[in-house]
Amino acid sequence: MKEQLKEQIDIIDGYLDKYLSEKDNPQSVIYKAMRYSVFAGGKRLRPILMMNVCEMCGGDVKEIIPFACAMEMIHTYSLIHDDLPAMDNDDLRRGIPTSHIKFGEATAILAGDALLNKAFEIVSDYSGTNPERALNAINILAVSSGTEGMIGGQIVDMESEGKDITLEELKYLHLNKTGAIIRSACAIGALMAGASEKEMTAVDNFALNLGVAFQIQDDILDVIGSEEELGKPIGSDAEENKNTYVKIAGLEEAKKMSEEYSFKAKNSLAGFGGKADFLLKLTDYLTLRRY
User: Fold this and answer.
1) What pLDDT shows up at residue 242?
2) Does position 99 have pLDDT exceeding 90, yes or no?
3) CB neighbours of 14 closer than 8 A, spacing ≥ 6?
4) Which of 109-123, 149-163, 184-198 has the least mean pLDDT?
5) Contacts of 59 (CB under 8 A, 6+ apart)
6) CB-hemisphere CA count at 13 Å for 245?
7) Over the Cα atoms of the chain, what is R_g?
8) Is the CB of residue 103 less than 8 Å from the CB of residue 71?
């Protein structure tokens, strides 16, 4: 599994390197800041999901490479802004200083803005064989990263700080903040492959449940993980009194919930048979991970 993931990450990184090539001009520092965060490591989960859903649905993976890279840029921009003093105020991300620590707060803000804009530069320049599908995919990408998706989830998270919320409210928060672009990554992969309505529904159920399981595991790792493996301090959620699945449900119940959502995710792909093998293994890998 790790070897397959490494191969796919290398493919994605190769394209990201081209899309984010440094420019020798007066604003060159912005390219340095963008590349610093994009190439700081990371699982490349969203592009990998997009590529493998596309393949599972019988599509040409080359068609969605621009969308996969754009998705990773959007995810990275959200992390840069998440780490800012006005948000989570984190000094470390993936084991290295966060963007605002390395480049200063103003440059970090602009690097996040630049990655968001670059993402849409890339997908709006689509020159493949399915322009109508691509237009729909751009809309999915925009909505999932905006006020009805990731940004919406982030503001609800901020508004919930210091308050007691229910598990359902927490799930809503994370289905948007974390889950929205996981779902859109899978939706774009299926859409660009020409998936049927039934297949699109199955893929969305998979992504929805995987997103919840992934977030629960994140919450669990903040309690039982190691700083060395995670690349950031552990225990920060409890220290900052954040609402998490562990805080609301308890550690053991959170583990059970992660298993349940993982099972639901895998069961959603039953209709794809052997074509879903990689995504089934990936689900286990992600929900049993240590970092």
Assistant:
1) 81
2) yes
3) none
4) 149-163
5) 189, 192, 193, 194, 195
6) 26
7) 18
8) no
Range picked from 87-96, 203-212, 223-232, 243-252 for highest mean pLDDT:
203-212
Question: Would the pLDDT of 290 be above 90?
Answer: no
CA 78/CA 257 separation, integer angstroms: 26
Burial status of residue 129 (CB atoms within 10 A of its CB: 0-12, 13-18, 19 or more): exposed
Q: Is 181 buried (19+), middle (13-18) or exposed (0-12) by CB count in 10 A?
A: buried
Q: Which residues contact 27 (CB under 8 A, 6 or more apart)?
A: none
Token pair recorded at residue 162: 């210091």
Contact 184, 140 (CB under 8 A): yes
Q: Which of 133, 125, 143 is nearest to 74 (CA)?
A: 143
Structure tokens at 113: 């803005």
Pair of tokens at residue 137: 């995919």
The angle, 0 to 180 degrees and rounded to 10, between the axes of the packed helices 105-124 and 28-38 is 80
Cα dihedral 229, 15, 73, 216 sign:
negative
Contact 50, 68 (CB under 8 A): yes
In terms of pTM, does the model score above 0.90?
Answer: yes
DSSP secondary structure, the chain, as one string? -HHHHHHHHHHHHHHHHHHT----STTHHHHHHHHHHHTS----HHHHHHHHHHHHTT--GGGGHHHHHHHHHHHHHHHHHHTSTTTT--SEETTEE-HHHHH-HHHHHHHHHHHHHHHHHHHHT--SS-HHHHHHHHHHHHHHTSTTTHHHHHHHHHHHTTS---HHHHHHHHHHHTHHHHHHHHHHHHHHTT--HHHHHHHHHHHHHHHHHHHHHHHHHHHHS-HHHHTS-SSHHHHTT---HHHHH-HHHHHHHHHHHHHHHHHTTGGGGGGGHHHHHHHHHHHT---
Residue 92's φ and ψ, nearest 5 degrees, are -125, 140
